[in-house]
Design goal:
Layout: E1 19-25, E2 28-29, E3 33-35, H1 47-51, E4 54-56, E5 59-63, E6 69-72, H2 74-87, H3 95-108, E7 121-130, E8 143-152, E9 163-167, H4 185-200, E10 206-209, E11 217-220, E12 224-229, E13 232-236, H5 245-256, E14 260-264, E15 276-281, E16 285-294, E17 299-302, H6 311-324, E18 335-338
Parallel strand pairs: 9-10, 9-16, 13-14
Antiparallel strand pairs: 1-2, 1-3, 1-8, 4-7, 5-6, 5-7, 6-18, 7-8, 10-11, 12-13, 12-15, 15-16, 16-17
The structure holds pyridoxal-5'-phosphate (PLP) and 2-OXO-4-methylpentanoic acid.
2-OXO-4-methylpentanoic acid binds near residues 58, 281, 282 and 283.
């Protein structure tokens, strides 16, 4: 293995040794298989390629302070993958099979789990694709479940550093009664132009409003949004955003730290009243936000004047990372230790 500069890896793709796969055919999921090849032998008319019959997940394994390997909340990802499958007419993968595949792929690629000191982690990417050759628009009969892993560093440049986000009403990632609540490839294709526009303008990500009224906050890029107002953790409730497992964990941690949690529609003007703001997700962890520039109206919502993460964001970040790296007790039962 060429040496990896663990401290300086970004959020990219570094090849690893093995991936794990499982085929759905004749109405049933088969046995897990281990592959060394990173390529798929796929029919050009496969339904995933034309009609985006594809769902995926993202979770992480961490090398803890005690040298043990910890996987964060994998059962939640298994359940969400089932929801995504139902949403786009794919067969649900049993939760136990999902967990078995995750444990297997992590163990097989153990040498790629970044060391504790690096602050990096092993990103786990499960996905299910429709493989039946079809030209008519209908669900496939055959599917492939694949899980690969790759070591990753911070998603937004700088890691736990505050960066600016861009708000524009010119883009939606999902429709009001569409598929925004599922983790499916199609949603990310819809968001590509907005994301590139935001990056070109020097922002970390695009900030979406609700697609129906353009009145409420939805989410930001590939992460949920939260704000801090006094001692309150505030996060949008919306049917067009992905139910983030990180966000749900932060709500639990916020309550545990004595904060009040409000999970409700948040009107865009309310941004004015926030003391701190952040994007959260598996990849984003907590990415604090310095300001959100509303480029349609030329207005800035500023959360950090010195460019530094605020105290509540920092406290939440330290608690979440502490549990993930085994520095803090796993009091909510979120961790699976890989033996
Ligand atoms: N929202 C979107 C659109 C995402 O892609 C992600 C990433 O998974 C999230 C939110 C955060 O979800 P989670 O915390 O479960 O990773
Ligand atoms: C994640 O946070 O796991 C994501 O999926 C975000 C992005 C890399 C798509």
């Amino acid at each position: 293995m060429e040496t990896i500069d663990w401290k300086n890896i970004g959020f990219g793709y570094i090849p690893t040794d093995h991936n794990v796969r499982c085929t759905f055919t004749n109405g049933a999921w088969g046995e897990l298989r281990t592959h060394d090849d990173a390529y798929l032998n796929l029919h050009m008319a496969a339904s995933c390629l034309h009609y985006a019959q594809e769902a995926f997940e993202g979770l992480k394994a961490f090398r803890g302070v005690d040298g043990k390997i910890r996987i964060f909340r994998m059962e939640e990802n298994a359940k969400r993958l089932q929801d995504s499958c139902k949403g786009i007419m794919m067969p649900e993968l049993p939760i136990d099979k999902f967990k078995e595949a995750i444990l297997k792929v992590v163990k097989l690629n153990e040498r790629f789990i970044p060391p504790y000191e690096s602050g990096a982690s092993l990103y786990i990417r499960p996905m299910i694709i429709g493989t039946t050759a079809l030209v008519g628009v209908k669900p496939a009969n055959e599917y492939e479940f694949i899980v690969f892993v790759t070591p990753v560093g911070p998603y937004f440049k700088g890691g736990f550093q505050a960066t600016p986000f861009m708000l524009s009403r010119k883009y939606d990632r999902a429709a009001p009664l569409g598929t925004g609540m599922y983790k499916i490839g199609g949603n990310y294709a819809s968001g590509m132009a907005a994301g590139v526009h935001a990056h070109e303008m020097g922002y970390s990500a695009i900030f979406y409003l609700d697609p129906k009224e353009k009145k409420y906050i939805d989410e930001c890029g590939a992460a949920n949004f939260f704000g801090i107002k006094g001692n309150t953790y505030l996060t949008p409730k919306s049917s067009s955003i992905l139910p983030s497992i990180t966000n749900r964990s932060l709500m639990t941690l916020a309550k545990d730290l004595g904060m009040t949690v409000e999970h409700r529609p948040i009107a865009v003007e309310e941004l004015e009243t926030l003391d701190e703001a952040g994007a959260c997700g598996t990849a984003a962890v907590i990415s604090p936000i310095t300001k959100i520039d509303d480029i349609d109206y030329g207005h800035s919502y500023v959360f950090s004047h010195d460019g530094k993460p605020g105290p509540k964001c920092t406290e939440l970040y330290n608690h979440l990372r502490g549990i993930q790296y085994g520095e803090k007790a796993d009091k909510f039962g979120w961790i699976t230790i890989v033996e």
